[in-house]
């Protein structure tokens, strides 16, 4: 078996592991996940470095990223060619959709410098605790896109397709499809249809990355991916390098044309930081003069990075900090921004959070949603609880288990049950008993705390028709309420609940101010 074939097997094996872990990032009749479903994020050196620098802390959860960084220094930029799930997906899209299309737009080789400038920009902002990695890191983008956009759409399509089959009179089709549907429901589909508010912009960003393959093979990896730039710098002098025996090379140009990363110039020169070890050039070489080893001499090409461009990128990263930080502090006071239980103080939370969507994916009741601008531009796509959509399950600690950087602390269940993420309040102008319209005890019935945080008191009141009668009216015990939001979720009013939850009284309020 050739190394090129072995590389393809590695790519698809890793991608299947990625999909398997994604599908198992959910509640499985147990509050404890049996294995690390967030392992790809913990292997990501860019996420690890950005979270550590911006959070001013060494994060033990991301130690596997040091292994990837060390292997990159030794072997070169192997991760992008052999193990990156985004790279595998882009290769598949190129092979199935764009391989036979003529690319009329020639992307200038100089565009590859942009990923290095983006990396410098991210480093400059991270030094001053502003974390923008979530916009550019490929692993975060892939998981977030799958969780917030792709999976909900596929889940809906599959349910609707099989639902349509069951609604017809095609007996044989229905009988054949039913076992398949049962299998999908048991192993792949969500128990309830997930819904996310920011699915459209997240999905469009993901589709744009895929569509860019039309213009150039691995356009994203070549020109825009800061993780690729970081690994290129680490692996520039790796031992596993492309070598050409120049005496036997006929300059046929086949290797340069076939290179998915544009890492070859004039057949013999190599941008070693750009080479991902895919070995396509070796497989296609008619003279068999290409080796991947450390024996022969080397001719290396360099990426043209001007000092002015590097300094401008770093300065821009630093300059964004005061503008967005002021806005974030103003938005942090918004009572509608309810963070998950175990979330760190707001500044530290935003500096660590990668907006990967793992916590939203694993949330049992679909209550965790990506923000848009509620928490400021700095807080875009970070998780907040939206009780009108879903609540925080009282007996669940999964969001803390899947967070790869500790932005959400992993809490023991007894501690989690006591953490206040907000406070419920009654809108008496809408509540049915308070309006005198009818009795209603839905909020009290669903309150999960051991001692009910919502109490019903019998009080005299007037009906809408003006008749005197006794109503059971709800009151919130602020000492017992933890702000889980189930009362707002279950409130029978269809448009806006008579019970609503705000972040007032949250446990981390003191830490946020300090």
Quick overview:
The chain is mostly helical and 514 residues long.
Structural domain tally: 3
Mean pLDDT: 87
Number of strands: 10
Q: Supply Rg.
A: 27 Å
Strand line-up in the sheet with most strands: 1-4
Net shape? elongated
State which percent range the strand residues make up: 5-15%
Q: Would you identify the regions where 5 or more consecutive residues have pLDDT less than 50?
A: 168-175, 509-514
Main beta sheet: strand number and arrangement?
2 strands, antiparallel
Q: What is the CA–CA distance across the termini?
A: 60 Å
Tally the helices. Answer: 23
Percent of residues in helices comes to 40-55%
**Structure classification:** mainly alpha
What does the model show?
The protein is 45% helix and 9% strand. It is mainly alpha-helical. The protein has three domains: 206 residues, no CATH class; 83 residues, Alpha-Beta Plaits, CATH 3.30.70; 89 residues, no CATH class. Helix 7 packs across helix 12 and helix 7 crosses helix 15. It is elongated and about 105 Å long.
């Amino acid at each position: 078996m050739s190394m090129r074939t072995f590389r393809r097997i590695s790519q698809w094996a890793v991608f299947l592991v990625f999909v398997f872990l994604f599908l198992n990032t959910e509640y499985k009749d147990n509050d404890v996940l049996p294995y690390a479903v967030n392992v790809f994020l913990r292997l990501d050196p860019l996420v690890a470095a950005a979270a550590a620098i911006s959070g001013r802390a060494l994060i033990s959860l991301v130690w596997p990223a040091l292994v990837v960084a060390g292997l990159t220094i030794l072997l070169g930029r192997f991760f992008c060619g052999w193990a990156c799930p985004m790279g595998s997906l882009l290769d598949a899209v190129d092979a199935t959709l764009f391989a036979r299309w003529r690319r009329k737009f020639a992307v200038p080789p100089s565009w590859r410098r942009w990923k290095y400038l983006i990396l410098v920009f991210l480093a400059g902002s991270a030094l001053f605790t502003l974390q923008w990695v979530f916009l550019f890191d490929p692993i975060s983008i892939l998981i977030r896109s799958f969780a917030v956009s792709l999976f909900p759409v596929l889940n809906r399509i599959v349910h609707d397709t099989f639902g349509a089959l069951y609604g017809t009179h095609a007996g044989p089709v229905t009988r054949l499809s039913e076992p398949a549907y049962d299998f999908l429901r048991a192993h792949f589909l969500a128990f309830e249809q997930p819904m996310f508010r920011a699915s459209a912009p997240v999905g469009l960003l993901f589709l744009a990355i895929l569509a860019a393959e039309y213009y150039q093979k691995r356009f994203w990896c070549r020109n825009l991916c800061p993780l690729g730039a970081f690994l290129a710098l680490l692996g520039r002098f790796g031992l596993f390098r492309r070598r050409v025996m120049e005496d036997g090379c006929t300059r046929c140009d086949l290797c340069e044309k076939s290179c998915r990363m544009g890492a070859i110039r004039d057949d013999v020169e190599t941008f070693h930081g750009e080479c991902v070890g895919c070995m396509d050039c070796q497989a296609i070489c008619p003279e068999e003069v290409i080796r991947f080893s450390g024996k022969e001499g080397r001719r290396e090409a360099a990426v043209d990075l001007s000092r002015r461009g590097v300094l401008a990128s770093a300065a821009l990263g630093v300059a964004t900090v005061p503008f967005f930080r002021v806005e974030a502090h103003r938005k942090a006071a918004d009572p509608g921004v309810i963070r998950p239980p175990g979330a760190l103080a707001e500044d530290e939370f935003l500096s660590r959070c990668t907006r990967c969507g793992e916590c939203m994916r694993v949330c049992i009741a679909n209550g965790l949603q990506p923000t848009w601008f509620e928490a400021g531009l700095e807080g875009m796509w970070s998780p907040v609880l939206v009780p009108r959509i879903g609540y925080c399950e009282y007996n669940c600690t999964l969001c803390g288990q899947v967070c790869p950087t500790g932005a959400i602390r992993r809490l023991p269940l007894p501690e989690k049950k006591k953490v206040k993420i907000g406070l419920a309040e009654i809108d008496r102008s809408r509540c049915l008993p308070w309006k005198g319209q009818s009795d209603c005890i839905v909020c009290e019935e669903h309150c999960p705390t051991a001692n009910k945080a919502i109490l019903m008191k019998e009080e005299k009141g007037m009906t809408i028709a003006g008749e005197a009668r006794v109503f059971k009216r709800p009151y919130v015990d602020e000492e017992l309420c933890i702000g889980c939001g189930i009362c707002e979720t279950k409130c029978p009013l269809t448009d806006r609940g008579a019970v609503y939850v705000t972040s007032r009284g949250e446990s981390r309020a003191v830490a946020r101010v300090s």
